Amino acid sequence: MCSSDLEKSRVLIAVDGITNPQNLGMLIRSAAAAGVGVLLPREGGCDINPLAIKASAGTVFRAQIVRCTTLMDALERLRERGWRVAVMDAAAEQSLFAPLPAAPHVFVLGGETAGARAASLAMADCRLFVPMENGVESLNVAVTGALVAYRAMLAGRE
User: Fold this and answer.
1) CB-based burial of residue 39 (10 Å sphere; 0-12 exposed, 13-18 middle, 19+ buried)?
2) In whole angstroms, what is the distance from residue 158 CA to residue 143 CA?
3) 94-142: per-residue pLDDT in tens?
4) Nearest to 90, CA basis, from 135, 60, 39
5) Cα–Cα distance between 16 and 70 in angstroms, integer?
């Protein structure tokens, strides 16, 4: 991970175990549209492939993608540089839309079935949920990624 990559953004969306390349592509598309970077580990999930490229509508070639070997190593490095780790977790007590400290944030989005892994949860400075009604328990990870990306973009304009 290059420090110059980190200077481009004060917000990253980290991918933690996403296995569906279409979800990855849609998440990258939303992040690119909002001007948010994507932290993509080489281990522990799917990689960019033709399905991800198609789902991203080609934005994968314009997106700010920061590659790392493992997510845990990258999160440790980011924390050492003053970044806060916010893990999306349906069981969290703090809303994604609550005020956050004025610091760079990496928002960790977990896999489609199990969510964020225990190691990611253990590194969290905060855990956040998306408020939902009508008995809905969760959203598709790509949809959650879009909400995170646009929340970050709008917070940067305040």
Assistant:
1) buried
2) 23
3) 999 999 888 899 999 998 888 889 899 999 999 999 999 999 988 999 9
4) 135
5) 9
Name the token pair of 148.
Answer: 């995170």
Mind listing the pLDDT tens digit for each residue in 49-99? 999 999 999 999 999 999 999 999 999 999 999 999 999 999 999 999 999
Measured distance CA(3)–CA(134) in Å, rounded: 43
Provide DSSP, 60-118. GGTS-EEEES-HHHHHHHHHHTTPEEEEE-TT-SEETTS---SS-EEEEEEBTTTBS-H
Are 91 and 121 in contact, with CB atoms under 8 Å apart? no
**Locate tokens 């845990």: which residue?**
72
Q: Which residue has the tokens 């993509």?
A: 40
Measured between alpha carbons, how far is 69 from 76 in angstroms, rounded to an integer?
Answer: 12
